[in-house]
Amino acid sequence: MTQIAIYPGTFDPFTNGHLDVFERASNIFDSVVVVIAENSRKNTLFSVDERREMIEKIICRYPGARVEVLHDGLLADYARQVGAKAIVRGVRQVKDFEYEFQMSLLNRQLNPDVTTVFLMPNVKYTYVASSIIREVAMLGGDVHNFVHPNVLEKLHEKYNVCKGQSNT
Ligand code: PNS
User: Fold this and answer.
1) What is the CATH code of the structural domain delimited by 4-126?
2) How far apart are CA 135 and CA 128, in angstroms?
3) I want to staple 2 with a disulfide (CB 3.0 to 4.6 A). Which of 30, 33, 104, 151 is the partner?
4) Which of 92, 79, 99, 97 is nearest to 31 (CA)?
5) What integer best gives the mean pLDDT of the chain?
């Protein structure tokens, strides 16, 4: 039986830390579905379609990988719909754990058939977060070590457009 895991997140944008966690999950599960959660509470830099396109380009070479969007509803219900056995979450530092612990127990309550699996990325990504990448890129810093070249290009496009617009 195919073991499916879902890897949910906002991914604004998808970083090399995310990719590291995704690769680790791909080594464990037959199929890993990256699930972009469209969270109306968050103002994102990239639209869902932009994020989807970027992630698809990065993970297409992995067998069993795909990208889906959770437009609304609970992740626990989505896991049930796609027959996922596991929810994968990356944990970089101890401080991540409090929120993750709460979320995993809640998801288990909502769907007892799904188990959250925490994976640690390579230590070089412990301080990499999408929010920091966005800020550094916006301020003209070099983030090429932290994102895939496709994402880097999109960040440059985004911030060049923003700078251009603010000058008009
Ligand atoms: O990358 P993020 O922003 O930390 O990911 C958070 C995410 C998307 C995993 C979480 O907000 C989520 O699962 N959203 C889907 C809606 C849901 O099920 N919420 C209840 C979580 S217990």
Assistant:
1) 3.40.50.620
2) 12
3) 30
4) 79
5) 93
